[in-house]
């Protein structure tokens, strides 16, 4: 042994493997950090002396901390006089620079165990007795402890303004009580309130911290009630007879002047609709201007009580004709409430104006010559159907197989004349064999709603599908409408099995025995099992060695394509010498790479030297032994 270890490692002196790996003189750092876990964490997280010193993590521990130099040897090699504390987690600043090491690093304790926070060392010096927490750095700094960094404006909800800036802290925080300190004016100045609480607690509404006697209150700006006319000369107490912030006075005239109402409430509480504050006797009401209903023609001659029969303030009269004339409506409400679309207030039943073109059914062609009564049997006009088939069902020679939208083909200028382009209007171009097919061959059933047929081939030709649905519904990918069984467009290379090599010359029927193409398997072994001279010992992935250009052509390099190099005695062994059992998957082909997996019977050591035979032997000859200090 090189020499005695230090006292701390003495119990491991006879256990070399605790600190050293056998036969490896290189890096022992992993062994060191396995025991010294705190140092390992510092290196990983970049903290502490080891973590903050640049390049230290790449150096060997033994570079600084030598061993086998005696029980009392100083392997720490710490230069206390020249140590830069900035390389640790606690940089020395201010008064800390002059502090003795022993003041923080106690005897018998590791340097890393020294406290890091102000409160850990100065708990007994805390004049606040913990009421402000343990983070002293919020207000103090190590350079000048008596110099406070606390900013009351930024760090509290109460910025100090005006006269508050000159008030001593103890005036608001007696006994260093900083939590739950009130921030409202009334909380501190209730005894100084000359209003005796009648104006509430929000003193800042009128007063400022800079000049308390200056009032900021403006009744017009700060309330919902502007003082106009005679109100400007009225004393505050005439309206505000109690506590201001509890009164919640209404701004309506009737709330104060109900006893002065000569209308006895019939016109409601909104007196300002007609009266004005400068001069109460002056009426300024105009029905045309101040309401949503202008009095025109016959309405101008009506008396107010003809419409307003109750209390005006409570009744809500409508402005539509039907609100008053519902019983006179011959249309039974079907034409809505806007009677003025057709009628006028001067001559109600005469000079009716109506444009049928604004409805869902504009009058075109022969319809423009028809009389109103020909379609509208009653004044309930909206009950009249608008569909062609509703009136002309008996004229439908298609028996409703083409639906009810006759306007797709016919037009009102003449029912016998029709226009329809199937390629454009039906979104299904008639090509090839479809062009000669009669309408009834596809449109076979009566249709009540909108005419709509499925446009896929199989919707009509499902029974003709020899593939039994395996190729999907897009028949036009391969076939065409002109000649269904001829000029089939199909590219086998777009499938999962592109035709390469000899496969390109093979006839379709050789692999596809029926039209159910997807039932054919694509693996080599599915067709060429009889050609497999390996009897599946090389697995079923034939393409690893063979190519479709010729089965006898193959290429495989065991040294580059596997993780087991064939050299020495292995280079001349046939594949079947190692791969002897049939393999269904790629995983089954893989063999163990250890020598003992094949040469267990040849192991004269009977496993005592482990499975790594290549430590002593090589593949040239099993009897050739190579090891340190011995070679034969």
Task: Give a topology summary.
Layout: H1 29-35, H2 37-45, H3 48-52, H4 101-104, H5 118-122, H6 152-155, H7 169-172, H8 185-189, H9 219-222, H10 236-239, H11 244-247, H12 254-257, H13 287-290, H14 304-307, H15 321-325, H16 372-375, H17 388-392, E1 410-411, E2 414-418, H18 422-425, H19 439-442, H20 458-461, H21 508-511, H22 524-528, E3 546-547, E4 550-554, H23 558-561, H24 575-578, H25 586-589, H26 596-599, E5 626-627, E6 630-631
Antiparallel strand pairs: 1-2, 3-4, 5-6
Structural commentary:
- The structure is a single chain.
- The protein contains 26 helices and six strands.
- The chain has 632 residues and is mainly α.
- Among the domains are: 42 residues, no CATH class; 63 residues, no CATH class; 54 residues, no CATH class.
- The strands form three sheets. It has a two-stranded antiparallel ribbon with strand order 1-2. Strands 3-4 form a two-stranded antiparallel ribbon.
- β3 and β4 form a beta hairpin.
- It is flat.
- The relative contact order is 0.02.
- The model has no long low-confidence stretch (mean pLDDT 82).
């Amino acid at each position: 042994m090189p020499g005695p270890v230090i006292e701390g490692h003495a119990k491991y002196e006879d256990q070399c493997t605790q600190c050293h790996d056998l036969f490896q003189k290189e890096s022992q750092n992993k062994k060191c950090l396995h025991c010294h876990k705190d140092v390992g964490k510092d290196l990983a997280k970049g903290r502490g002396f080891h973590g903050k010193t640049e390049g230290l993590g790449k150096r060997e521990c033994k570079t600084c901390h030598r061993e086998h130099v005696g029980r009392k040897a100083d392997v720490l090699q710490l230069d206390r006089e020249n140590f830069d504390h900035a390389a640790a987690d606690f940089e020395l600043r201010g008064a800390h620079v002059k502090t003795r090491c022993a003041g923080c690093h106690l005897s018998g304790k590791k340097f890393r165990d020294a406290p890091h926070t102000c409160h850990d060392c100065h708990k007994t010096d805390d004049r606040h007795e913990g009421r402000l927490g343990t983070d002293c750095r919020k207000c103090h700094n190590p350079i000048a402890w008596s110099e406070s960094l606390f900013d009351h404006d930024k760090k509290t909800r109460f910025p100090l303004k005006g006269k508050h800036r000159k008030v001593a802290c103890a005036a608001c925080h007696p006994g260093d009580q900083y939590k739950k300190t009130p921030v409202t004016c009334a909380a501190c100045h209730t005894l100084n309130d000359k209003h005796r609480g009648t104006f509430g607690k929000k003193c800042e509404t009128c007063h400022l911290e800079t000049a308390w006697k200056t009032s900021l209150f403006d009744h017009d700006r700060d309330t919902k009630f502007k003082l106009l006319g005679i109100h400007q000369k009225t004393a505050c107490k005439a309206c505000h007879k109690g506590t201001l912030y509890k009164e919640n006075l209404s701004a309506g005239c009737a709330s104060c002047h109900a006893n002065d109402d000569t209308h006895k409430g019939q016109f409601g509480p909104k007196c300002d609709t007609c009266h004005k504050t400068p001069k109460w006797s002056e009426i300024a009401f105009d029905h045309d201007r101040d309401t949503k209903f202008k009095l025109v023609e016959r309405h101008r001659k009506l008396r107010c009580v003809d419409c307003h029969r109750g209390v005006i303030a409570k009744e809500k009269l409508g402005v539509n004709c039907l609100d008053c004339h519902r019983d006179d409506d011959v249309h039974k409400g079907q034409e809505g409430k806007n009677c003025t679309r057709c009628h006028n207030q001067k001559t109600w039943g005469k000079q009716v104006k109506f444009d049928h073109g604004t409805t869902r059914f504009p009058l075109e062609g022969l319809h423009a010559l028809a009389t109103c009564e020909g379609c509208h049997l009653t004044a309930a006009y909206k009950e009249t159907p608008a569909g062609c088939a509703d009136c002309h069902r008996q004229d439908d020679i298609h028996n409703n197989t083409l639906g009810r939208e006759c306007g797709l083909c016919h037009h009102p200028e003449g029912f016998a004349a029709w226009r329809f382009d199937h390629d454009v209007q039906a979104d299904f171009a008639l090509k090839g064999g479809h062009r000669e097919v009669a309408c009834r061959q596809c449109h076979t059933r009566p249709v009540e709603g909108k005419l709509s047929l499925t446009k896929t081939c199989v919707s009509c030709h499902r029974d003709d599908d020899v593939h039994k649905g395996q190729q999907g519904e897009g028949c036009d990918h391969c076939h065409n409408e002109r000649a269904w069984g001829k000029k089939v467009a199909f590219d086998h290379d777009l499938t999962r099995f592109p035709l390469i090599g000899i496969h390109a010359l093979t006839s379709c029927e050789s692999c596809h025995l029926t039209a159910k193409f997807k039932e054919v398997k694509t693996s080599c072994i599915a067709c060429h099992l009889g050609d497999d001279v390996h009897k599946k010992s090389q697995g079923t992935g034939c393409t690893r060695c063979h190519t479709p250009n010729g089965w006898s052509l193959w290429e495989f390099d065991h040294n580059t394509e596997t993780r087991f190099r064939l050299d020495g005695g292995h280079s001349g062994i046939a594949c079947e010498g190692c791969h002897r059992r049939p393999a269904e998957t790629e995983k089954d082909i893989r063999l163990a790479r250890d020598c003992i997996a094949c040469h267990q019977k040849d192991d004269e050591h009977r496993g005592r030297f482990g499975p790594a035979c290549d430590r002593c032997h090589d593949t040239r000859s099993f009897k050739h032994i190579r090891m340190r200090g011995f070679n034969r």
